[in-house]
Amino acid sequence: MARRSTLALLGALSLSIPGAAVANSFQQCLEGIRTEAHARGISTSTTENLLADVTPSERVIELDRSQPEFTSTLNGYLSRRVTEDRIARGRELLEEHASLLAAIEREHGVAGRYLIAFWGLETNYGRYFGRMSTVQSLATLACDRRRGEFFRNELIEALALVDEQTLSPDQLYGSWAGALGNFQFLPSVYRAHAVDADNDGRIDLWESFPDAAESAARFLRARGWNPGERWGREVILPEGFDYALADSTRSLSQWAELGLRRPGGRDLPTESMEAELLIPAGADGPAFLVYENFNVIMRWNPSRFYALSVGLLADQLIGAPGLSNPPPQEPALRIATIEKVQENLNARGYDAGVVDGRIGPMTRAALRAFQQSVGITPDGHPDSDTLEVLGVEP
């Protein structure tokens, strides 16, 4: 790594000791992690063995700043994840593991199609687990300003997995964010929810699909999964719909009264079940009513695009058609562009929240309010017309 890129990376890392020299900040951060790990009962031999030669990874920081969940369009995201090949392979695996998945559903209430969908999205059905050092990835993120506290805990959990002899050091390889195995569990999830489902005396989330699948089901149920309920569904909005209602929650009966229908014009179920309306690609794209299980999926990965991909793939694994109104093809926005959108909204008095380059609930609400004030369809989507009026270059 060149000297300039090394210093740039170190400059992104948080300082554990105020006023410390930038060149020493990473090692000082690791020293703090060692101290905390020892206080939590992890042996010195484990911490020294795993942390002795760790250096920060420029690639990890780069990947953290450019996650596709935040930089892709809905069309681009779905087209790379809910593919014909993935659907076909998923159907084969759903049939192959039918008896195991049925048993898991009886025990934990999570239907097999969802487990297969998570598996497909996380590792392409075990075809790719990731090859990055878990310890280096987690150490880099633990000493980064953005989410340091979260990953500091994950690194200590990884050390504990080795110290307890649940995992060996040579198993600590996976994604850039430190996730492991078929379902890409972070170390804290591994420790809390992984089980030896095949009763062979060890937990193996790589080679044992029973261990991996039941562990995933346990995790989902612990996060609040509602047995027997869907994730959500695509809906068709009526002419003249008030897009200011996006991101709001009502009962299915109330949405039906507002004119929402299933694709093909079929009525919504007449239930009191609560559902939130999502319009993730603007007025020209698909609309969805999502239920509590959608929120559970987002507790696995806090991205609407990811959660929609899980739900849509799970549906198509059991024969459901694709979207009746596919998302439009549009260019992805750069993080810097979204930051400018947030800055300009805030400057105009529309509270878009923290300027972080990510379109979350506050930014969408601010966009809707601004769009409504200037006569643009208030769908909360930063399309080209909105950007132009807001004075932001794409």
Strand order of the largest sheet: 3-6-5-4
The helix/strand series, from N terminus to C terminus, equals HHHHHHHHHEHHEHHEEHEEHHHHH
Oligomer: single chain
Q: Please bin the fraction of helical residues.
A: 40-55%
What structural class should be given to the helix and strand makeup? Answer: mainly alpha
Residue ranges: pLDDT <50 for 5 or more in a row?
1-8, 14-23
Largest sheet: 4 strands, antiparallel
The total count of helices amounts to 19
Overall average residue pLDDT: 92
Rg estimate, integer Å: 23 Å
Roughly how many Å apart are the termini?
32 Å
Shape, per Cα inertia axes = globular
Q: Would you count the extended β strands for me?
A: 6
> How much β-strand is present in the residues?
5-15%
Structure explained in plain terms:
This protein is mainly alpha-helical and 394 residues long. Among the domains are: 3-65 and 130-169, no CATH class; 335-390, no CATH class. 50% of the residues lie in helices and 5% in strands. It is built from 19 helices and 6 strands. A 4-stranded antiparallel sheet has the order 3-6-5-4. α2 runs antiparallel to α3, α8 packs parallel to α13 and α9 (112-123) packs across α16. The two termini are 32 Å apart. The model is unreliable at 1-8 and 14-23 (pLDDT under 50).
